[in-house]
Amino acid sequence: MRADSAYITFLLLLLCGLAGAQTPSPKGRYTVDYTRGCAPLTITLTDNTGALITYLLRNKDTDTFIGEYPGGATTTIPLPEAATYTVTQVAELEDGADPRDAMDILVFPPTNPDFLLFACSNLGARVEILDRQYDYYEVQFGSTPPVRADAGTSYAASGQFTTAGSHTVVVRGRYENSPNTCGSTTKSITARTALPAPLLSALRWNPEKDSVALQFSLEPQVRYRLERLSAASGSYEPLFLLRGEATDTLLYQADAATNWYCYRIRALDACSGTPAASSQELCTAAFAVAAGEGVNTITYSTNPSFSGELQLLNAMGTVLHSSAGPGGSFQDANLICGQQYCYQLRLQPQGAPAGTFSTSTPLCVTARRTQPLPPLQNIATYWLSSQLVVLPQQGPGIGPLQYSLQNSGGARLHEGVGDSLLYTTTAAAACYRLSYADGCGNQASAATPFCPLYLSRQAGEPDAFVPMWTPYEGYRQGVQEYVVQELDGADRVLNEWSAGTATRYDGFALFTPADVGRRFRIMALPAEEGLRPSYSNTLAFELSMEAHFPNAFSPNGDGLNDEFKVLGKFVEKASLWVYNRWGELIFHSEDKEQGWDGTLGGKDSPAGPYVYKALVQTSDGRQRTLRGTVVLTR
């Protein structure tokens, strides 16, 4: 009986192998149509024993019993979820053999395949499958019959459309000897007769960090390749592949400071691997900056076949130098010692789209100089309230940083850093000396003397305004002209009068009380063009108090000095008190025109000394108290 069973099993195995669709159980008592597939999977079991049978189903992953299925000639069992199932046939056999015959069924999740899709020339397309979970894949290009992609094709497939434009590509995952229930992915692609050229829009290289950064725009679903040309290679060499999703990349370039390189991006036919359209070429340059004695030297060179413009820029983006050749040099002498200067090189290829260029990162050096500095030649000054503002005027490239202000005897008064110096002091006629040092520590060979303008008023009649000032010293070629300026309350110029080279101005008529508060200053115009003028302190016109009393009077009726009262100009009010030698008040008046006539109660006061006190107010509202002794004579 056992020999017969073995023979039957052999025949069943042979038949199954010939059919290619059924898989026998380990003991050959039944066959199954699918041993692997995607959920949900339905399997059909075919009995080979003819005995009374039952099928038991268990989830092997969770060791869970699922159910019992009565058997017949064929039995169908659903497997709804992804798992490893064990199907066991239990048969009532007459020979007393083990009634159980079990086999495993693998059910996988219906995962959608992941793949790359590229356009090819001549309406072609290529699929490159990324995952490897299925035995093989069916790839269908549009309505054409599906083609197989498996390990033998490196999981890739190519196809062709009949028309240009948008089409679909469907990729389905398949297991050998399994139903078509697994996942599929559909993508769209534009069929093209020719591949589009990429746009390489910007290149930025860093000579100090040996890096090159590229920015570009690529068409989706087109394969591209980055290529590089160097002086050593003589021809373009491939670096790596790019896809349309990329927009930039960073490269390491070990000798970016000393050698030039050119880059381009080419479209590749993904089906044939042949190169197609290319981008604009962008190049780097060998680029160096060196600090010398008062000058920075910049050198650069690029691909000898470069056609376009090379521009050297400073840190503000200003073009310092440009050339049409592949290289050159530039010397920057407009420097301030001790300050840092940064330079960039920009290459603009001829015929490139607007905004397409390559630039270096800035290279920076610190300007240096070791020679002594020349003395200051021109110094301008002006007064700002109680501060003297000193403005040294240097030519380009000097750029002093630290100033030292001294008095005329050489004693240090003040120091400051910047373009000007503010010294707090009271406006007065004085002279100073100014020295400076640059950022490298170089000192001026000598201090420069200068004398600011100081404006005052000549003493004289209270209604006469004669401005006078100290001559200005501080300009190498002297002062061309002095100008008297009248200012308003906001220091705006209302009127101007030229004084020539004189240091006083006599051109004003007599002033009146209405002129009180008028403000004036002097402007010194340098004889050398291009220099700042200098300004004096501001002076306001005030009425001089000229009120006074005689030291004696004789009230004898001769019309001369008969009355004791206030004398002078611009007296608005006057109060007068007169006392005898014993301190008794004998006269008082609030009228400036009414004085003491030498009497008391209608009788003549005795001759002799008397004491007086007066409160006098001038037309500008100022008050003054006067005291003294007056002698009455008969």
From TrEMBL:
Q: Where is the signal peptide?
A: 1-21
Q: Which Pfam families match?
A: CHU_C
Q: Does the keyword Signal apply?
A: yes
Q: Which UniProt keywords apply?
A: Signal
* Name recorded for this polypeptide: Gliding motility-associated C-terminal domain-containing protein
Protein's organism = Cesiribacter andamanensis AMV16
